[in-house]
Amino acid sequence: MMDVVSKHFRPEFLNRVDESVVFHPLGQEHIKSIASIQLERLAK
């Protein structure tokens, strides 16, 4: 992961980062579920 990140950011920035979290892409069902929850909140 750091190989990809180091191609996009300068070392000065990367030295300030303490930790990193890798997120996996959301699937279609997860996106629908999130949208449904948000629409329910909006309707209230």
Structural commentary:
- The chain is mainly α and 44 residues long.
- The protein has one domain.
- It is 61% helix and 0% strand.
Low-confidence stretches: none
Number of helices: 3
Radius of gyration from CA coordinates: 17 Å
Biggest β-sheet description: none
The number of distinct structural domains comes to 1
Q: State the total count of DSSP E strands.
A: 0
Mean pLDDT: 93
Q: What is the distance, rounded to the nearest whole angstrom, between the alpha carbons of the first and last residues?
A: 41 Å
Which strand-content bin applies to the residues?
under 5%
Shape type: elongated
Helix content: 55-70%
Structural class: mainly alpha
SSE pattern, N- to C-terminal: HHH
Put the structure in a nutshell.
The protein is an all-alpha fold and 44 residues long. It has helices at residues 2-8, 11-14, 28-43.
